[in-house]
Amino acid sequence: MGLITTRLFPHLFVSWSISSRSRNLKASTGAIRPSVLATCSLISQRACSGHPGTQGGCTVARHSVSSMDDSDAAQPSLFDVAVVGGGIAGLAAISRLSRRGLRLLLVEQGRGVGGRMCTRHASCPKTGHSLVFDHGCQYFSVKEACQPQFAQEVERWLEAGVVQHWQGRIGTLDFDEDEGSLNMSSFTAFPKEKLASIMVGAPSMSALGRHILGRAGVGLKEDQRGRSIDIVVKKRTRAENVQRHSPSRRWRLQLASRTTESTATEVEARVLVVATSAKSINRLLLTSVPDEVKGINSPVCWALLVAVASPLAHIPFDGAFVANSADAGVLAWVARDSSKPGRPGTGNAPECWVLHASAGWSYSMREASTDKVREAMLAEFTKDFGTQDVVYSEAFRWNNAFPLNPMRGTAKCLVDSERHLALGGDWAAGDRVGDAFESGVALAASALALL
């Protein structure tokens, strides 16, 4: 499988990133303190091989309450492992742990799982046609040398059809500072080898997260081998007041619904895994956050989702990084999402585009309203793309687009063995989708070791 060095938010999200070309902030991380944090070795990862996200532990009596909905009925209050964060790292951890007959809890504050591997659905106000936008990660690829577990899983996804190659015209173009606009004639396609390694979720990015949960057995009582499955998934739910209860040696979490005003539910877990952005870990754990996590920085990224009435045939590409976006201009990445496999065909339907703003511009507009940002980015789009035939537009703000200074350590996660706590995410391993996945595998292995 070919190699690609771009990141998740393809710029932000092209493998996970707001393109590396738009980065203008740097920071350094501290060394892991051996007295507090234990590392996760590659050997322990291999010992926990299987679907990403699996965590291990002792088998307990089953209550058969596995569910993908948000119902609280009859859900157990004690779990072997609680995973906070339903992005790729958290899903990788849950998936691997699901093979060990454990009682598992996955808490995700968003409407769905997958984190930045997500899709926004809308309807055209004029025609009613379905509109599909991958507003986070634009595509991903595999770096086999440092992402062995991810490489194996991607092969399974390809076989299942939930991942397909994006055979679009993808590359780079320049921002003309004199003209104040994108220079469309400067587009340069990526080399064929790189283009061949570009993949997307099908029929959408968000389909991949649902697939991972399905493979983990969510909604089932037992797997094909007759082993019990007990996974509770809480979406649109925020974990709060997370504390380690010393007498019982368990973690206590308050689960607050983001859709109702009902009283928060308290649950306990023998092991706590936090697979979120570094900023979210700081919020969740407050004063007990390791210095290594406190030092991780993540930029804001604004995205514009826009649909035009008819295809922009005069645009010579399907996806492009703006090569000098860090120095000037509003846009860092532009993509014709309708060109991705499995998306609604154009025909008479509107054509969908996703634009990611540069890091500098996003930072300057970090306090701006969604409407103001939408108007500003839409003005750039209509000017640069030569069209006024817009039938839909929406701005979306990513508060933690990607880690500017990931740890990139071989451990791929941080572990506090005394408190039965494991922390991870892309920030612990890199800034790409595969890095987040590898961190999830390491988190699962660590959780198993702590039980």
Report on the structure:
- The protein is α/β, with parallel strands linked by helices and 451 residues long.
- It is built from ten helices and 19 strands.
- Strands 1, 2, 9, 10, 11, 12, 18 and 19 form an eight-stranded mixed sheet that branches. A seven-stranded mixed sheet has the order 7-6-14-15-16-13-17. Strands 3-4 form a two-stranded antiparallel sheet.
- It starts with 41 loop residues before the first helix and ends with a helix.
- The relative contact order is 0.24.
- The N terminus is likely disordered.
Record the SSE blueprint.
Blueprint: H1 42-47, E1 78-84, H2 88-97, E2 103-107, E3 120-123, E4 130-133, H3 148-160, E5 163-165, E6 170-176, E7 181-189, H4 192-196, E8 199-201, H5 206-216, E9 230-234, E10 237-245, E11 250-257, E12 265-275, H6 278-285, H7 291-294, E13 301-308, E14 319-322, E15 331-336, E16 351-357, H8 359-364, H9 370-385, E17 390-398, E18 414-416, E19 421-424, H10 433-450
Parallel strand pairs: 1-2, 1-12, 2-9, 6-14, 12-19
Antiparallel strand pairs: 3-4, 5-8, 6-7, 10-11, 11-12, 13-16, 13-17, 14-15, 15-16, 18-19
Helix pairs in contact: 2-5, 2-10, 3-10
